[in-house]
Specification:
It is found in: Membrane. It holds the Pfam family MFS_1. InterPro entries: AmpG_permease/AT-1, MFS, MFS_trans_sf. This protein has about 425 residues and is an all-alpha fold. The protein has helices at about 15-25, 25-55, 60-65, 70-75, 80-85, 95-115, 120-150, 155-170, 170-180, 185-195, 200-205, 220-250, 250-255, 260-265, 270-330, 335-360, 370-380, 380-385, 390-400, 400-415, 420. Helix 2 (about 25-55) packs antiparallel against helix 7, helix 7 packs across helix 17 and helix 15 (about 270-330) crosses helix 16 (about 335-360). About 45% of the residues are buried. The model is unreliable at about 5-20 (pLDDT under 50).
C-alpha cells in the first residue's frame, strides 16, 4: 500500500530547488491530486452536465432551475460529518471505508442517470441526482479529513492548492468532454463514460493506507460534542468567534464581485463568444496557475504570510472590475482590459483559495478533522449562498461601478482580522 501516515516525518528545510521538487512530486501530493479530481467531478456533473441533459431532453427551464436545490448537502454536510469521524466501514478505517462507499455509490448513481428519459422518469432522475449530491458531499467530508491527516502543517499549502486545482480541472470532463461526446453518443453512454472517471479515486482508496490518528472518538456522542468542545477549548469563545467571522469575510468580496460576472460583461457590450473565449481560457488557467504558485510559495513563507499577500492579490482585482465598469461607461472597455481583469481576478482567487483552504485545514484537530473541516467550510459557503443572492438588487440600486466598490469594502474586515487571526510575524503552527 501507498503510505499516507497522518504524522509523516518533517521535511528538511529547502535550500534549493531539489527539496521543493521532491515535495511537489511526493506520493502525498499525488494523493491530493487524485482525490481533488474525484471530489470535483460529481459537483460539475450536477451543475453542468445534468442541466445540459435535461435541456436537451425538453425539460422546462423552471424545473431545471429547481434541480439546483440538490446541492444543499454541500452546505449542510457538517450535520452528518460526525458519523464519518465515529464509524468505520468495511474494516478499511474511518477514511478509506467511507471514501470507497461513496465512490461506489457515485459511479452507480451517475452512470444510471442517462438510462432514464426525463419526460417519463423525472422522479427517478431526481432521486439519483439527490443520491449523487449526498454521496458527493459525504465524499468531500472524508477526503478533506484524509488530506489534513496525511499532510504536515508545512505541506498544507501545497497539498491544498494541488487539491483545489485538480478539483477545478475535473470540471473539464462533465463541462467539456462529456458535452462534446453528447453530440455523437446517446446520453446513457455519456453518463456511463463520465462515471468511469471516478475509477482512479476508487483505485487509490484501495491501495493507499489509512491515516493513523490517536484519540479518535469512541462513541457517537463524542463525535458530535467533542469537535465543538475541542474547537472552543483550543481557541476560547472569543478566538472561536473571530475564526468564524474571518471565515465568513475573507472571500466575501471576491465571491460577490464575480456572482454576476457574465451579465456584467454583457452590459459592457461584449458578445457571448468573446466572454466564453476569454473567461474559459484566461480565467481557468490563471486560476490554476495561482493555485500552483500559491502552494509552492507557502512552502517558503507559510500560511500566515500567505493569507496577507494572497488576500491582497484577491482584493486588488475587485478594484479592477470597478475600473472596467468605469471604462465601460465611457465606451472604452477593450477586450484586452477584459482579459487583464479576468486574468488578475482568477490568479488572485487561485492564490487566496490556496491560503484559505490551508488555514481551515490547519485549524482542525486530527481526531475530529471531518466534523471541524466540514463546519468551517460550510460556514465559508454562507456568503456564496445568501449574500450573492442580493447582488442583483445592489447593482440595480447603485450601478456596476459603485457595486464593485462596495464589494471591495466588504472584503476589508477579513483582511483586518488577519492582525488577530494570522499575525504577520507569528510562526505558523508546526
Amino acid at each position: 500500500m501507498i503510505s499516507s501516515s497522518a504524522t509523516p516525518s518533517p521535511q528538511p528545510q529547502d535550500k534549493g530547488g531539489r527539496g521543493i521538487l521532491q515535495e511537489i512530486f511526493s506520493a502525498r501530493m499525488g494523493i491530493c491530486l487524485v482525490t481533488g479530481f474525484s471530489s470535483g467531478l460529481p459537483l460539475y456533473v450536477l451543475i453542468v452536465l445534468l442541466a445540459a441533459f435535461l435541456k436537451d431532453s425538453g425539460v422546462d427551464l423552471k424545473i431545471i432551475g429547481l434541480f439546483s436545490l440538490v446541492t444543499f448537502p454541500y452546505t449542510w454536510k457538517f450535520l452528518w460529518a460526525p458519523l464519518t469521524d465515529r464509524f468505520q466501514l468495511w474494516g478499511l478505517g474511518r477514511r478509506r471505508g467511507w471514501m470507497l462507499t461513496t465512490q461506489i455509490v457515485l459511479i452507480l448513481a451517475i452512470g444510471s442517470v442517462g438510462l432514464f428519459n426525463p419526460q417519463h422518469s423525472l422522479s427517478i432522475i431526481m432521486a439519483l441526482v439527490c443520491l449523487t449530491a449526498l454521496a458527493s458531499a459525504t465524499q468531500d467530508i472524508v477526503i478533506d479529513a484524509f488530506r489534513r491527516e496525511i499532510l504536515t502543517d508545512r505541506e498544507l499549502g501545497l497539498g491544498s492548492s494541488l487539491f483545489v486545482n485538480a478539483y477545478r480541472i475535473a470540471g473539464l470532463v462533465p463541462g467539456s468532454l462529456s458535452l462534446i461526446a453528447a453530440d455523437f453518443f446517446p446520453w446513457h453512454y455519456v453518463f456511463a463514460g463520465t462515471a468511469l472517471f471516478m475509477l482512479p479515486g476508487l483505485i487509490l482508496t484501495l491501495v493507499v493506507s489509512e491515516p493513523q490518528v490517536s484519540l479518535a472518538p469512541k462513541t457517537l456522542r463524542q463525535a458530535v460534542v467533542e469537535p465543538f468542545a475541542d474547537f472552543i477549548t483550543r481557541k476560547g469563545w472569543g478566538g472561536a468567534l473571530l475564526c468564524l467571522i474571518f471565515v465568513f469575510f475573507y472571500k466575501i468580496g471576491d465571491s460577490m464581485a464575480t456572482a454576476l460576472a457574465t451579465p456584467f460583461y454583457l452590459d459592457l457590450g461584449f458578445s457571448l463568444s468573446v466572454i466564453g473565449i476569454v473567461a474559459k481560457n484566461v480565467g481557468i488557467w490563471s486560476m490554476v496557475a495561482g493555485g500552483m504558485l500559491g502552494g509552492i510559495l507557502m512552502l517558503k513563507i507559510g500560511i500566515n504570510k500567505a493569507l496577507w499577500l494572497f488576500g491582497l492579490a484577491q482584493w486588488v482585482p475587485i478594484l479592477g472590475f470597478a475600473l472596467l465598469a468605469h471604462m465601460g461607461g465611457q465606451g472604452q472597455a477593450s477586450v484586452w482590459l477584459l482579459a487583464l481583469v479576468i486574468g488578475a481576478e482568477a490568479l488572485g482567487t487561485g492564490l487566496g483559495t490556496a491560503a484559505f483552504v490551508s488555514y481551515i485545514a490547519r485549524e482542525c484537530t486530527p481526531a475530529f478533522t471531518a466534523t471541524q473541516f466540514a463546519l468551517l467550510s460550510s460556514f465559508s459557503a454562507v456568503p456564496r449562498t445568501f449574500c450573492n443572492a442580493a447582488t442583483g438588487f445592489i447593482v440595480q440600486a447603485v450601478g456596476w461601478e459603485q457595486f464593485f466598490y462596495i464589494c471591495a469594502l466588504l472584503a476589508l474586515p477579513g483582511m483586518l482580522l488577519l492582525f488577530k487571526i494570522a499575525p504577520w510575524g507569528a510562526d505558523d503552527k508546526n
